[in-house]
Amino acid sequence: MQNKNLKIALIVLILASGIIGIVLYVAAYFFGLLLIAAALVLYYFYKRVGEGSEAAGVWAKSFIKKLYIPVIGIAAAILLGGLIMLATGYNPVIAYKALFYGGFVKNWHISVLNAVPLIFTGLSIAFAFQAGLFNIGAEGQFYIGSMAATWLGIRLGMPPVLSIILIFVIAGAAAAAYNIIPAVLKVKTGAHEVITTMMLAHTAKFLSPIFIRGNGGDPATSSHAYVTDAIRETNFLPFFKDLLPKSNYRLHIGILIAIAVAVFVYYILFYTRIGYEVRAVGQNKNAARAQGISIGKNIMIALLFAGFLSGLAGVNQVLGLDHKMFENLNAGYGWNGISVALLAANNPIGVIFTSILWGALDAGGQYMTRTTQIPASIVEIVKGIILFLIVAKYIYSFFGRKLSKRRKKNIRREA
Amino acid sequence: METLLQIFNTDLLVATVRLSTPITLAAIGATICERSGIVNIAMEGMMIVGAFFGLIGAMFTGNPWIGLVLAVIAGGIFSLLHAFATVSLHLDHTVSGAVLNILAFGVVRYLMVMFFGHPGTTDPIQFSLKNFQWAIPGLSKIPVLGPIFFNQTPIIYFSFILVIFFTFFLKKTKLGLHIKAAGEHPLALETIGVSVYRMRYIGVLISGMMAGLAGAYLSIENAVSFTEGMSGGKGFIAMAAMISGGWTPVGAFIASLFFGFADALQVRLQIAVNLPIPSELFIILPYVLTVAAVAGLVKRSRPPKADGTDFMIERPE
Questions:
Q1: Nearest CB partner across the interface for B280, out of A199, A206, A383
Q2: Is residue A52 domain-resident?
Q3: What is the mean pLDDT of residues A305-329?
Q4: Which residue stretches of B84-144 are H helix?
């Protein structure tokens, strides 16, 4: 009995210190990291109390194992990027110092702001990937979500929290609806979603200027051409600085929503019937069909939910950061979303970290250019190399196979 | 009536051919690639790479023909990454394609800043392949058909020749037949002693070179400078053309003409129609038609049997 109470107390303590730690850390109160670390250590003890020291040891080992592959990949990419800088005449030490200081310390809030939409599009692409589908047109759904959020944000005047929730749900649903076309075509005719979602992404992008002109951005009549009217202030997402005065004034709570949604997607994928079916379809269609799982239904679910998630990226940008919608924003959230999803091996929790890494590289790159005159585009190269190192594990297994073959041959020869 | 004539005239068809050329070239390349069994969604990225290197070559030598050659080589080399990843490393074809698209944008942006000091649009070249517009004597005098097919710029002529060449290549040459076999029944090909890996490498390489040529058309024939994102989804439209064309060069050519026509038409409609309709509604026309075409025709055309599948074999050494 006492053991049970201790367990509950421990869970509460772990969750509290973990969540508070995350909130503090993203708001650039870096000592929050200590609380996050404390939560992890406490979780280890919780495992020990509940399942014995062996299970706890296994958990700790698997946790460290999960960390070390990406860490090695990123380190190798940094090294290679440094060599490229040397080859093209820049000093990599100065560059990386500025890059990391800018991305993770000085302009940490920009990194976080960059990461928020990426987490959503990354989750969208990862979820579709789990069903064996490639939602390459996430950018289009982002535009639909932005438009819907702006339209509602200008008009809805309900009590603050209620209208924000409504906007999230409705704008997300609008983006999901936009994915009905590729989903139905995929199920009914087999039209490849790479082509249909990509074409619809271009369509949404080209339609957005019409929307912007219709909502206050008409150059003929408006003082602020090519930008919509601002949304109502009651529909702004809350800012961190309301609670933590030292944090940057632009930092909104979108990051917390994004993390919560990522945990939710993880739960759906790995702990529910829906997630199980979606993954089964993604892994082996024939086996799934043999189990009585409907392929068509799960394709619909995966693409629609993916659209919903990408739409949320747009909602966040409008309600949290911009408070209006701009024309010609070459956001690139679709393409970068693919990167972060692949890098995280389509794991929703991993997407959080890869998005923050991507956001920090962008923010750090800008800081680097300002302070050292080294072009920020080197960041694109570093990103490219990191991405290419995803295939590193395939290269490893490729050479591994060759080696084992040679070994086998030698053994045969000896025999 | 007058408006109609303003839209539907020979110029529209001339523009159709011009706008469809990059799609045709990429679609033929993608067709060969998929006939060998490899799905290539990196056509867009390879086009970008080709377009950029085409411009670099034309700019620094002053000779657009060298630019053309460089574009084809760059597209080819870039495509070898895809071949290595999908054939040798057995990586998923779409994953590798997506990574290469992203990598292409990154590499080009970096090189652009290195060469020109800024991203966006490069400086223009003085002398482009447009200067080599050539009216074929006699044939170009034929009414309507003359200006459409026989008074064009070099890469457009190449695209006509390549349609015929690759049709012949797939049907009559040994290499072409082997490539097709690699995409239909790789194991059978391997049993007669032909390397499936090699055939697939060649298929991907051809697609990369064709995408490079398409890119060169964009930057040094149809325009005089390189702009980031100038491919505007044409690599993906080319894949749609490949599917709509039933994985044959001639089919891909006809489908590309259709998409080029949609593009030419929307430009004209924007100019000619004086109704209060936002011009964006015309711009989306080619994209919407692409979706419709893929949806309508995909059931009727049959992909190569082993398209997009991995092939692994342990050879005795």
A1: A206
A2: yes
A3: 93
A4: 93-116
Which of B95, B288, B317 has its CB closest to that of A203? Answer: B288
B285 touches A at CB < 8 Å: no
Q: Tell me what the pLDDT averaged over chain B comes to.
A: 90
CB contact A218 to B (< 8 Å): no
Q: With beta carbons less than 8 A apart as the criterion, state whether B270 and B282 touch.
A: yes
Question: By the 8 A CB rule, do A128 and A279 touch?
Answer: no
Residues A32 and A136 in one domain: no
As for how many domains chain B has, the answer is 1
Q: Is the Cβ pair B291, A181 closer than 8 Å?
A: yes
In a domain, B189, yes or no: yes
Q: Tell me the Ramachandran region of residue A216: left when phi exceeds 0, alpha when psi lies from -120 to 50, beta otherwise.
A: left
Q: Which of A277, A257, A255, A281 is nearest to A268 (CA)?
A: A277
A123: helix, strand or coil: helix
State ipTM: 0.87
> Quick one: A10 and A114 in the same domain?
no
Residues 126 to 165 of B: which have CB under 8 A from any A CB? none
Q: What confidence tier does B167 reach under pLDDT thresholds 50, 70, 90?
A: very high
Q: In this complex, is the C-beta atom of B91 within 8 Å of any C-beta atom belonging to chain A?
A: yes
Quote helix, strand, coil % in chain B, to nearest 5. 70, 0, 25
B302 in reach of chain A (CB within 8 A)? no
**Residue A402 counted as domain residue:** no
Q: Look at residue A400 and tell me if it is in a domain.
A: no
Does B176 reside within a domain?
Answer: yes
Please check whether residue B314 lies inside any domain of the structure.
no
> Given B106, B110, B294, which is nearest A191 (Cβ)?
B294
Let me know whether A154 and A27 are in one domain: no
Q: Is residue A396 part of a domain?
A: no
CB atoms within 10 A of CB A218: 13
Interface of A with B in 84-103 (CB under 8 A): 88
Would you say residue B50 lies in a domain?
yes
Domain at B183, CATH number:
1.10.3470
Where a domain ends, among A40, A57, A74?
Answer: A57
Q: What is the pLDDT of residues A284-311, one digit of tens each?
A: 889 999 999 999 999 999 999 999 999 9
Question: Nearest 5°: CA angle at A61, between A60 and A67?
Answer: 95
Structural domain total, chain A? 2
Domain ranges, residue B201: 2-126+154-297
Q: What is the pTM of this model?
A: 0.90
Q: Give residue B316's pLDDT.
A: 54
Amino acid at A118: L
For B295, the closest of A191, A194, A394 (CB atoms) is: A191
Judge: A210–B281 Cβ closer than 8 Å, yes or no: yes
- Look at A152-161, B198-207, B248-257 and tell me which has the smallest mean pLDDT: A152-161
Beta bridge partners of A242: none
Quote the longest CA-to-CA distance of chain A: 88
Q: What is the distance in angstroms between the Cα of B106 and the nearest Cα belonging to chain A?
A: 5
- Integer Cα distance of A146 and A140 in angstroms: 10
Give me the domain span that covers residue A129: 87-391
Burial category of A165 from C-beta neighbours within 10 Å (exposed 0-12, middle 13-18, buried 19 and up): exposed
How far apart, in whole angstroms, are the C-alpha atoms of residue B248 and residue B253?
9
B106 with A381: Cβ contact below 8 A: yes
CB B96 within 8 A of CB B90: no
Mutate to test the interface with B, among A202, A210, A399, A405 (most CBs of B within 10 A): A202
A157/chain B closest Cα distance in angstroms: 30
